[in-house]
From TrEMBL:
<comment type="similarity">
    <text>Belongs to the phosphohexose mutase family.</text>
</comment>
<dbReference type="GO" id="GO:0000287">
    <property type="term" value="F:magnesium ion binding"/>
</dbReference>
<feature type="compositionally biased region" description="Polar residues">
    <location>
        <begin position="1"/>
        <end position="10"/>
    </location>
</feature>
<dbReference type="Pfam" id="PF24947">
    <property type="entry name" value="PGM1_C_vert_fung"/>
</dbReference>
<keyword id="KW-0479">Metal-binding</keyword>
<dbReference type="InterPro" id="IPR005841">
    <property type="entry name" value="Alpha-D-phosphohexomutase_SF"/>
</dbReference>
<dbReference type="InterPro" id="IPR005845">
    <property type="entry name" value="A-D-PHexomutase_a/b/a-II"/>
</dbReference>
<dbReference type="InterPro" id="IPR016055">
    <property type="entry name" value="A-D-PHexomutase_a/b/a-I/II/III"/>
</dbReference>
<feature type="domain" description="Alpha-D-phosphohexomutase alpha/beta/alpha">
    <location>
        <begin position="297"/>
        <end position="409"/>
    </location>
</feature>
<dbReference type="Pfam" id="PF02879">
    <property type="entry name" value="PGM_PMM_II"/>
</dbReference>
<dbReference type="InterPro" id="IPR005844">
    <property type="entry name" value="A-D-PHexomutase_a/b/a-I"/>
</dbReference>
<keyword id="KW-0460">Magnesium</keyword>
<keyword id="KW-0313">Glucose metabolism</keyword>
<dbReference type="InterPro" id="IPR036900">
    <property type="entry name" value="A-D-PHexomutase_C_sf"/>
</dbReference>
<feature type="domain" description="Alpha-D-phosphohexomutase alpha/beta/alpha">
    <location>
        <begin position="186"/>
        <end position="288"/>
    </location>
</feature>
<keyword id="KW-0597">Phosphoprotein</keyword>
<dbReference type="GO" id="GO:0005829">
    <property type="term" value="C:cytosol"/>
</dbReference>
Length: 545
């Protein structure tokens, strides 16, 4: 078959606006005529073209990943890209892709994933564009892509056969070099450079038992290589290890609701010492100990307090950052360490500038994301290895480490309540109504708590000065409790209200209470202040994490 470039006439398709993390739509939407092609061409058009550039390409293996990779390769070649590093079989976890961009000094990367959203012919698909630092494109770039998608008149594609991605090696597509790489090797080597694999291996050899649930998503091969092959965990430690296009019908979201079998195992008889899960594309993590769940906010705080135990962080931390809705537990650790703590909007992209500027090297979000400046994405297996390194160094259980942490710093009881599948208009009206009343709230008392401050969070990036507004409504109480409300930016249908609830207990008493019971007055205050039931017709959340 002869290869030739075709300029295909097209028209703008409405709605190609990237959200919190790339463009996410139902798979049939992405499979529509021109849909993927328009968006990919818009990425090139918005970023100065692909001519002469090097890209990383891969995805989490969900349905349509294989076809989309072939289309994108042909479009990269037609647009004049010089070289593409692509994961074998079209697979790359998001953290591995971020690492490969940095390692190869690529100009950017395209990652195919809708993260923790289910996959399959009727579920979700997504495309993320990462920039040369390895991180998600900042808002200035995603806005430019969106504008390009509204003006597009043609896309360029090479008419040719599929590229063989079944084994590592060099391929050629027109003038473009394609390096098919083992998706795991470079990433595993990076992990080995950061953590004390000998100590973890010795702990496991000494009888420490762990379980990792890959949720039939992309981390399976990574976890098998690192946990079983390199660290010596018995075969079978990693469950749901085979990546499947529909994630085996599971919802690849590592939280107590969707990873319930893992929860049951860790809370059951003869539970292992440690349990963890990751999501569709491998950037999220959930950490469990025997009989205990570590909230992502607490995980961030514990890691901040103990990171120096891992060789890659032995010099101590430069600073930490958390998304605004994440609990303030890490702030207390930062204060004690005498390092800066930044509060950013939801979305990993907001950490990139801070890391590039050397201001922070540990970041985290309540949405099961934790990571450091070793790459520019959150990193599920990194968090697991950090915990294993801390456990190996301290020789205490997860529960004991948490209890000691709370005794030292106090405990930020924390939970997120999600109300899913809402009518977008009703959800927006509810928030607009509350926003209008925010200025009058300070000084008022509700549920025996005095409101100290209330605002609509806006962020001024301290590095580039850019301002991002309307990032969530915050109501802070004099006793340290806090309510935050915002709409999710990662859904593909209707609206999801995220209600974030926090209450601080300094200790030494009441450090081991039930989280939902402790938060009950804060929940009641939130429902009353926002009039949730009146606006949404709902009084109970769909998902509680
Ligand atoms: C994405 C972003 C995260 C963000 C999360 C939640 O996660 O990468 O930074 O915290 O969405 O977003 P929202 O509350 O708007 O749904 P992922 O794992 O989906 O890429």
């Amino acid at each position: 078959m002869s290869e030739h470039v075709t300029n295909v006439e097209t028209q703008p398709i409405p709605g190609q606006k990237p959200g919190t993390s790339g463009l996410r739509k139902k798979t049939p939407v992405f499979m529509q005529h021109h849909y993927l092609e328009n968006f990919i061409q818009s990425i090139f058009d918005a970023t100065g073209g692909a001519q002469g550039k090097t890209y990383v390409l891969g995805g989490d293996g969900r349905y349509f990943n294989d076809r989309a990779v072939q289309v994108i390769l042909r479009m990269m070649a037609a647009n004049g890209a010089r070289r593409v590093i692509v994961g074998q079989g079209g697979l790359l976890s998001t953290p591995a892709a971020s690492h490969l961009i940095r390692l190869n000094r690529a100009d950017g990367g395209i990652i195919l994933s809708a993260s923790h959203n289910p996959g399959g012919p009727d579920e979700d698909f997504g495309v993320k564009f990462n920039i040369a630092n390895g991180g998600p494109a900042p808002e200035s770039v995603t806005e430019a892509i969106w504008r390009a998608s509204q003006q597009i008149t043609r896309y360029r594609i090479l008419e040719t056969h599929d590229v063989d991605l079944s084994s590592p090696g060099r391929r050629q597509l027109a003038q473009m070099e394609i390096d098919v790489v083992d998706p795991v090797a470079d990433y595993a080597a990076l992990m080995e450079s950061l953590f004390d694999f000998n100590a973890i291996r010795a702990m496991i050899a000494g009888g420490f038992r762990l379980r990792f649930d890959a949720m039939c998503a992309v981390t399976g091969p990574y976890a098998v290589e690192i946990l079983e092959n390199r660290l010596g965990a018995p075969r079978g430690t990693v469950v749901n290890r085979l990546p499947l296009p529909d994630f085996g019908g599971l919802h690849p979201d590592p939280n107590p609701v969707w990873a319930k079998p893992l929860m049951d195992e860790l809370f059951g008889a003869n539970a292992p010492d440690f349990g963890a899960a990751s999501d569709g594309d491998g950037d999220r993590n959930m950490i469990l100990g025997r009989g205990i769940y570590v909230s992502p906010s607490d995980s961030l705080a514990v890691i901040a307090a103990n990171a120096h135990l891992a060789p890659g962080y032995a010099k101590g931390l430069a600073g930490v950052a958390r998304s605004m809705p994440t609990s303030q537990a890490v702030d207390r650790v930062a204060a004690k360490l005498g390092i800066d703590c930044y509060e950013t909007p939801t979305g990993w992209k907001f950490f990139g500038n801070l890391m590039d500027a050397g201001r922070v090297n540990l970041c985290g979000e309540e949405s099961f994301g934790t990571g450091s400046d070793h790459i520019r994405e959150k990193d599920g297996l990194w968090a697991v290895l950090m915990w294993l390194n801390i456990l190996a160094a301290r020789r205490e259980s997860v529960a004991d480490i948490l209890a000691a942490h709370w005794r030292e710093f106090g405990r930020n009881y924390y939970s997120r309540h999600d109300f899913e599948g809402l009518e977008t208009q009703a959800a927006e009206t509810m928030l607009a109504d509350l926003r209008d009343r925010l200025a009058r709230l300070p000084g008022q008392e509700i549920e025996g708590m005095r409101i100290a401050a209330a605002d609509d969070f806006a962020y001024r990036d301290p590095v580039d000065g850019s301002v991002t507004e309307h990032q969530g409504l915050r109501i802070r109480f004099a006793d340290g409790a806090r309510i935050v409300m915002r709409l999710s930016g990662t859904g593909t249908s209707g609206a999801t209200l995220r209600l974030y609830l926090e209450r601080f207990v300094p200790g030494p008493d009441r450090l081991a209470e039930d989280t939902q019971e402790m938060l009950a007055p804060v929940v009641r205050a939130a429902h009353a202040l926002a009039q949730i039931e009146a606006h949404l017709g709902r009084s109970t959340p769909d998902v509680v994490t």
